[in-house]
Amino acid sequence: MSLRLTIVSQIERVAREQRKTIAPLADDLPLLDSGLDSLCFAILVARLEDEVGVNPFSASPEAGFPITFGEFVKFYENAVA
Amino acid sequence: MPSPEPVALIDLARRGDKAARDLATADGALRFSDFATATALGGAREKLAGRSVLLLAGDSLKTAAALIELDGVARRLVLCPPDLRDNLIGEVAAIAEADAVVHGGEEPPGLDGAIAAHCRLPLQPAPTTPLPRLATEWLLLTSGTTGVPKLVSHDLATLTGAFAGGPSGEIQNWATFYDIRRYGGLQILLRAVAGFGSLTLTSAGEPIDDFIDRAIARSVTHISGTPSHWRRVLMSRAAARFKPAYVRLSGEIADAAILGALKDLFPQARIAHAYASTEAGVGFEVNDGEPGFPASYLGERDNGVAMKIEDGSLRIRSPRAARRYIGRNMPDLRDKDGFIDTGDMIERRGERCYFVGRRGGVINVGGAKVHPEEVEAVINRQAGVRMSLVKARRNPIASALVVADVVLESAAPREEAIREAILAACRAELAPYKAPAIIRFVPNLAMTPAGKLARDG
Predict the structure, then answer these.
(1) Predicted model pTM
(2) Chain B residues within an 8 Å CB radius of A55
(3) In whole angstroms, what is the distance from residue B135 CA to residue B73 CA?
């Protein structure tokens, strides 16, 4: 599975568990408008760390925080690369 | 008026001599009546009179022998738990002003100015010399995980206060999973000695089935352990053959799941959970089979114990509490009204009070507090779950998340179904941030030397 698909499937799973309705995950979708709250993001980051083995949020504080969904995917792609 | 001569442990051990009362591990036994004419201390009892004695006797039997022979004789008895690290012995000895060591035969630690006495079994015949009676101070170590443990001062009166006035003559044959060198186990040793019965103890490394089989063979009627101990019993084969009359839980929160499981396993038994700590002593016992305790326990009770909840934690004022901490620069044990802060957090729901966890044990999820134990209580209630450990996992977004390690019963349904059931129950009963973000299924969970679920930090 591509990293993007892994992220999408984890977002859908967290949203389902937390009973959140999420917006279509387009690259320019601001994360704050995605329908996920900060608890959802915290869970997502922990699950992705287990699944893909990286946590770019703690690994590279200088990398700049992703604002959109596309940047979020890129953030992980850069960390894995 | 001169104060009456203090009662000593040897007086209790000599009661009910007609029954063959003893204390047994898998390695040997000690008959209480033999102390009238024999000793484990060679000729050293007289030398130890009036001293502050560090007990490093090596095992439970030798420790019990030394306690029986030296209570009322020594000035202080310092109960060193088996996991006390060698590099802390000197500090404990200094705080206790120890001037004697009782050892089990290994090289005794070299302590400045202290005499050494070898405790050996079996007991050897010896004339008993009457010695002046003292009210011996018993020093127990708190079970901190790091650093120098605190030394807490008790005596036979505070230690037996919870049961000394009880019905006499009833034979209680006790067993315990606890080590007698800690408060919980010492309580059971003293109950057995004062209760006209015998005591069955585990040996280091003894399989649980073997211990239960020995308890059955020795007609054990009363048995005590932590909820973690009992969860292991539920996994043992021998448990189904065991028919105790009284089953006691203490040392950790007894939740509905473990109380219900023990009621099913031992339908004939009275299942009680007790609240006690090394500092506050035995606070109370709950006999209705439900978790928590009735709110009517708060306030002054006619047994001399008073309890209140302040800043969320249970406070106890009790004649069974420790007298004080020993050592320089130690905090006061009590507040100005005589209450001890247990640090155990309570939530009152209607007419019942529930333990929700330790004050220091909270997980901080983005500023919201979670007690691991409240989440474990929900998880442990789900079918197929044997036990669980809820802990914090560091997280860059929420500072920490709640995660759970879960041990399943052997005949449990498949993992995915249980995961769904756990999450559904947590969401129904707890705030969203309290539900575990990640659930791992593990084959077992570690226990501390004190028999409690090992929690990090």
Answers:
(1) 0.83
(2) 396
(3) 8
